[in-house]
Design a protein that fits this description.
The complex is a heterodimer of chains A (583) and B (144). Chain A contains 14 helices and 30 strands. Chain A has 583 residues and is α/β, with parallel strands linked by helices. In chain A, α1 packs parallel to α5, α2 crosses α3 and α6 packs parallel to α12. The chains are: A alpha/beta (583), B alpha/beta (144).
Amino acid sequence: MEEKKRKIGVYICHCGGNISDHVDVEEVRRRIEKEYGVTVAKTSMFTCSDASQNEMMKDIQEQGLDGMVVASCSPKLHLTTFRNLSTRAGLNPFQYVQVNIREQCSWAHSDDHQGATCKAANLVGAGIEKALRQEALQPIRVTSVKRVLVIGAGIAGLRAAIELADLGVEVFVVEREARTGGWVAELGEMFPAGKVGSELAASLLAEARKRPNVTLFLNAELAEKSGHIGEFELAIRVRPPGLAEETVRIQVGAMLVTTGFAEYEPKPGEYAFGQPGVVTLSQFEKLLQEGDGRLLHQGREVRTVAFIYCVGSRQCGEGEDLNRWCSRFCCSAACHQAVLAAKRFPGLRSYHFYRDMRTYGKFETIYEEAGKTGSVFLRFHEERPPRVERDGDSLRVVVQDLLTGGDEVALEADLVVLVTGMTARANDALTRVLKLPLGADRFYNEIHPKLRPVETVIDGVYIAGACQGPKNAGESVVSSLAAVAKAAALLIKGYVDLQPFVAYVRADVCTWCGKCQPACPYGAIEKVAYGDKEVARVIDVLCKGCGACLPPCPVDATQLKGYTDGQVEAMIDVLAREAEHER
Amino acid sequence: MSEFKPRILVFSTDNVSDPGIDLAGRNKMHYPASVFVVSLPCSSGVKPRWIVRAIDRGFDGVFIAADGSDCSLVPDCTRRTAATVAAAQALLKERSLEPARVKMAAVCSVCAESFQKHMAAFSEALRKLGPSQRGPAGSVAGRG
């Protein structure tokens, strides 16, 4: 094997209990600590914690480690964390190997503790073999263009476009609809600042338009994507109504997805939806804006309103496609609408049929105000939701009120408002073009809700706003500004450091048969003289590290850094090993 | 020896199928713990000799979770990966091993459910084939 014995540090993470609840991490440590080259083998409650990282740095420096393996979560989450740690401690960051024993072991096999423990030991063993054979590498730098595509011109997208433009980044905004502003453009007075939604949306658009480095495409969609972080090649399809379709090709360094949400549409008959006098919260909002002295619905004056909460949110029971989430904004929005209605139409009575009042943070004051302005609250149990009954021309809401000991209460109402929640918007075409991962709830998935909340597994593609889950307008803007910071930090440098895991040719073995050259999609292989023979050579900056040149080589001369025959075969050998009890 | 649990080696890809397999774990979608994943940059880079070696060293089957049309690196990735599978199957046949021990399917970055189904179906197919015979006894020295 190696001439000089390598010194590898191995750290196995409990991840709180995410790993150690299903994998016996001490047993894993015992099984691998005697492996060739292992100098340090430890377990840790959280390998990513400052304390653990400091300990690893100390080990690297004091023990002179020249390789490190951390067995924890997916490399999508912490590969960069531990590479940075390696750099700080003086270890070449590419001699760090991340082993995924959470997503691909403890969580996938939470039904098989023994199997998961054996598998984890083998995975760690394979990581050690890879680290033993990993030489020190330097990153390959590519230029990045200072341009961003923002997809979706709602409040999150427009706010992001303005901020990026002010940071000196050129911004393209594509909006599928014929207008900007998204949901906010349809809102009246918003809480707590009292701004009118339509005016807010208009002022954002005006701000964006003031900036020469913002280009807005309406009636437009992202149709094609190629390239990579730093240099994406995109095709935008613009379909102006009544005009010919046009395709615009642009190059950007990063993309920000702010496509928003869809309002939950009640099923026909759900709380009598579809019948006269039953509307959604957003329909009620429009009625309020229209009302002229009197609150009118279909020509009749409304004197009593019944709000039914959690429609399309927090659905419980059996079933795959239930909306199990809380939509966050709706308790506050319904209370706010009731307060506005009471101000505009004195004498209007509001009854609120709710499960739990979630007017969190400063929204609590709007709940309080609703109570003071005549709203009456009746609480129902999730398994006994209110019934909406029709009696001739009038509607009646019947509920078992938990606040009065479960008495059945029946209330006449002129208007029933279904407080509908947020669902994921159908963006199938965009999801396909960008290959963006969706969660089980069909919202876009970030890499990590706390640690990397606006990044996706697609490098250079960020998500923000309600496309990643229910958020109110303020929260959407907060996340879009986070994405602005991430994208701008990436692009303003002017370069992106790519992984140095490129192909190379073992010149001593190569006999230039010419098979690798046409196999490379990037023209990265050239023929050069080597002593008295001709051999293939890889042009580093052109190589994307795909490995397409590996299979055609009849003598295994082409190799990929990080995935050499030696590394992959040693990993296979370890993974094939069966523990005593398995045989 | 208890019930035969086919040992499967999966070649996944860093940016396409590996996130899909991660998602299966995140959603606690179970598949056999005898499935092991090695991630590569692209499925066009899988070498037939790695597949043969895996079977030789004790795996009962090899599954390539291919990039398919989602590949951002190699435009004709599916065709190339299929050629690799065909080459590996030919090598297995030379050793009197069943070509059905190698399988490929595109697994995208959100294909958690499809991955789980592939693992269940491939495990079942391998169970029917029985443990791999792995050629002469000498070639399995690496086991254990």
